[in-house]
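ok trying again, last paste got cut off:
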Amino acid sequence: MNRWLTEFDLDGRVAAITGAGGELCGAMARALGAMGVKVALLDLNPDAARKNVEHIRDNGGTAEAYECDVLNSASLAEAYESIVAVWRIPDILINGAGGNHPSGTTDLEFYNKGDAENPDVKTFFDLDEDGIRKVFDLNFLGSFLPSQIFGKGMTQAGTGAILNISSMNYYTPLTKIPAYSAAKAAIANFTQWLAVHFASTGVRVNAIAPGFLMTEQLKFLHIDQETGEYTPRAQKVLAHTPMGRYGTPEELIGAVVWLLSDAARFVTGITVPIDGGFSSYSI
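nice, full thing came through this time. structure:
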């Protein structure tokens, strides 16, 4: 094999991926499985993870599914020990569990004084602590805790790569979703911190910042279910995306493979936007 292609070779490595039942990390898991990586798919919904396991196995790959709560250290430790028993200490950790929730979302983009008198409008002042904590914890602690549990073994082994999932919200926060935006900014900051902390151990830490990808969830939110047309918010997304379209989960894979491979062996502490230019565009 050409030397430069060899740099990207991940064959034989072991990867643990949280949130692997979802569309984004499911695509990553399937791609890594096709490249010869032994993939441990961790998800609170094991049935969703098993579907991706079946896909990987049907295509000649090696994969196992593990039910796991990324906000529970004991659950993470159990999954880690199971993976080590089946294969070995993972070479790769992808912290993919996350997402937003209506409880951390305002109804309107801009606050007006009169909104406080309208019981049908959820403003910033109506967001409750539990809702904000639910979103923030899932996205931030849901990456922090797995990095503790899996990172300990990886640093002892002296090699490996951790990949976090931030968002273009890291660069400019989107309206209506304060908890999610704050958490994704925290992920980018944590990525830098952990990269420095692990710099002498042989474990690199990086992140990607996906833009708007046309997943099933986004189809429901950004496409009018009656007309099939883009919603007003979707039209704003496209107007602020220089490439003029939504991305796909598969378009994350190139950057993911690069950051996990030896081709990026001198790369640590960065967050790579994959967003069609969204984070670069102003007016």
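cool. The beta strands are 14-18, 38-43, 62-67, 92-95, 160-165, 203-210, 271-274. Residues 140 and 186 are 7 Å apart (CA to CA).
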